């Protein structure tokens, strides 16, 4: 990589390595840097406080770290701009307006200067140019969808407990919420104001607009715990615009391999639902990995789907115990030994270790990386990372 990067949008050359080194020095201060950042932001622009949760315990360094990561990657605009556009559209749900961006930028630069004794005019100019480009892309993307709602109110019309820590919710937006099977939608409840978490609908778009949401309550997870244990029928949630990249290739008619772990099952059920609604005939193998048999919270509905659709085969892999009639082993290993899959298009969704292992096994089995789409479904997913993946 060159020492400097020329940004055609601003006409400026910015020293990316110097910016990354500068941010690393601030990050080395640990929690002090984000605490200083938020203190500066809220003191200089108190109106921004309403954009954040009442308790900042779960916010911590997320915004500060994301800002540093994004701004220091302006040398890769081709991949960064679509993500920034997505973030700009998504941030409307927080009440973010164009006037907030300069305030955040000023606090970012003040923080980076505070923690770097080598700070100078050149570094300040580089960060300013890079941040202004990022803000410009996000503001323009938000303006392009100004005629669309920043969020959708949705009534809970069904709440079914599936074990101690899992629930399946059915929610119905007041107005249609467009999304593609496999995408994720952020969700907020009045029980945890301004804490948005991402979940994937387990169905393709329906005429009545209803969405099926799978939630597992994680220890210490304020939103997931509330959704499982406190939210009930009649409550109203807020849903943000769809994000994510786990979706079918619309030009492909290949047979599918879907591999799920945990509530990563939800988006893959949506894919199955979309195939069922399509005239194009495709074989679909859905492999679901669980640690124990009693973790298979959606067993009855999976059996129903397999019975209704002769093109669908459901395989369950149980890793920590032997279960009659079910495969034993890590789901990636079970997939590897039940192939071949070289001709398939594969979608993988689940916890980080499961996704990584499964993708590696598929590559070892000869499936090209270009035909593997994967997304990590981690606890309490607050939003997309800088690569556009919906993770924690």
Automatic annotation (TrEMBL):
Keywords for the protein's UniProt record, in alphabetical order: 2Fe-2S, Heme, Iron, Iron-sulfur, Metal-binding, NAD, NADP, Oxygen transport, Transport
Cofactor: FAD; heme b
Assigned EC number: 1.14.12.17
Domain FAD-binding FR-type: 149-249
UniProt-recorded Gene Ontology molecular function terms: 2 iron, 2 sulfur cluster binding; heme binding; nitric oxide dioxygenase NAD(P)H activity; oxygen binding; oxygen carrier activity
Catalyzed reactions: 2 nitric oxide + NADH + 2 O2 = 2 nitrate + NAD(+) + H(+); 2 nitric oxide + NADPH + 2 O2 = 2 nitrate + NADP(+) + H(+)
Chain coiled-coil ranges: none
Positions of the Globin domain: 10-143
Pfam family, one: FAD_binding_6
UniProt-listed Gene3D superfamilies: Globins, Nucleotide-binding domain of ferredoxin-NADP reductase (FNR) module, Translation factors
EC class (word): oxidoreductase
CDD domains: Mb-like_oxidoreductase, O2ase_reductase_like
Family classification: Belongs to the globin family.
Protein name: nitric oxide dioxygenase
């Amino acid at each position: 990589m060159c020492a400097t990067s020329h940004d055609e949008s601003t006409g400026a050359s910015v020293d990316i390595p110097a910016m990354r080194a500068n941010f690393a020095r601030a990050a080395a201060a640990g929690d002090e840097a984000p605490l200083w950042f938020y203190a500066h932001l809220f003191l200089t622009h108190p109106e921004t406080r309403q954009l954040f949760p009442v308790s900042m315990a779960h916010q911590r360094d997320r915004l500060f770290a994301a800002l540093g990561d994004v701004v220091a990657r302006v040398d890769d605009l081709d991949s960064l701009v679509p993500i920034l556009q997505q973030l700009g559209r998504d941030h409307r749900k927080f009440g973010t307006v164009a006037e907030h961006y300069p305030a955040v930028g000023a606090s970012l630069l003040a923080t980076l200067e505070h923690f770097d004794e080598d700070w100078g005019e050149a570094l300040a100019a580089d960060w300013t140019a890079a941040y202004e480009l990022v803000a410009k892309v996000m503001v323009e993307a938000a303006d392009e969808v100004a005629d669309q709602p920043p969020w959708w109110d949705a009534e809970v019309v069904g709440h079914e407990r599936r074990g101690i820590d899992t629930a399946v919710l059915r929610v119905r937006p007041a107005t249609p919420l467009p999304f593609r099977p496999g995408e994720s939608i952020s969700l907020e409840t009045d029980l945890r104001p301004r804490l948005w978490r991402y979940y994937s609908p387990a169905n393709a778009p329906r005429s009545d607009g209803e969405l099926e949401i799978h939630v597992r309550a994680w220890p210490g997870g304020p939103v997931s715990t509330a959704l499982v244990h406190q939210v009930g029928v009649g409550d109203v949630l807020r849903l943000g615009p769809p994000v994510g990249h786990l979706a079918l290739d619309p030009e492909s008619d290949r047979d599918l391999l879907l591999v799920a772990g945990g509530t990563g099952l939800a988006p893959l059920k949506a894919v199955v639902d979309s195939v069922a609604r399509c005239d194009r005939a495709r074989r679909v193998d859905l492999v679901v990995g669980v640690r124990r048999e009693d973790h298979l919270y959606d067993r009855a509905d999976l059996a129903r789907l397999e019975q209704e659709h002769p093109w669908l085969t459901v395989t369950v892999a149980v890793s920590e115990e032997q279960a009659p009639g079910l495969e034993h082993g890590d789901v990636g290993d079970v997939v590897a030994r039940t192939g071949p899959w070289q001709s398939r298009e594969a979608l993988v969704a689940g916890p980080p270790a499961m996704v990584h292992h499964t993708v590696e096994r598929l590559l070892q089995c000869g499936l090209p990386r270009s035909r593997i789409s994967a997304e990590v479904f981690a606890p309490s997913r607050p939003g997309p990372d800088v690569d556009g993946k919906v993770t924690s």
